[in-house]
Design brief:
The chain has one domain. It is mainly β and about 160 residues long. Strands 1, 2, 3, 4, 5, 6, 7 and 8 form an eight-stranded antiparallel beta sheet that branches. It is built from one helix and eight strands; from the N terminus they run E-E-E-E-E-H-E-E-E.
């Protein structure tokens, strides 16, 4: 049997410093370790990181909203530090899910805009990963999309 712990912190906030401008963001981090006997019955304990600990991750966004509050545009930066606190089992399983030596950190820029057409219809579009960064979320096993565009429609009644 193994004993372990996990703790972390997540902070999120927004500041409307002008009637048309809002600065928002979040930061999250966790730490977790597992203690298990290295050999059955021995008093020796092996202290290892938990599988897929979240690296320090954050986002910062600046949004401008038109005085009519029908149009907005937002720039957002997403970032994560390198995650090299990995278990031997995670590393031995495969290097597709977690690259050898850990998951590299990244910084990604996105640009989104929206239009509230009327009370029932809102349109949204965006360009994500503006620098075409090759990155992945830790433990995901696949890279996120490169430079890409999105379009959304929200209908309410």
């Amino acid at each position: 049997a193994a004993d372990g712990y996990m703790y972390g912190v997540e902070l999120e906030g927004a500041w409307k410093f002008h009637p048309q401008w809002t600065l928002s963001g979040f930061v999250a981090w966790e730490e977790g370790r597992t203690e298990a006997p290295t050999f059955l019955g021995s008093g020796v304990v092996d202290d290892k990181p938990n599988s897929r600990n979240l690296p320090l991750t954050g986002s910062l966004a600046l949004r401008w909203t038109d005085t009519s509050e029908k149009f907005w545009i937002e720039g957002r930066i997403l970032a994560a530090t390198e995650e090299d606190r990995i278990t031997a089992a995670d590393q031995a399983a495969d290097d597709q899910r977690i690259p050898t030596g850990g998951t590299p950190g990244y910084i990604v820029a996105n640009l989104h805009a929206g239009w509230q057409v009327n009370q029932s219809l809102a349109l949204h579009c965006g360009v994500e990963n503006l620098t075409d960064e090759d990155y992945r979320n830790h433990g995901s096993g696949q890279n996120e999309p490169g430079l890409n565009g999105i379009f959304g429609v929200k209908v309410s009644w």
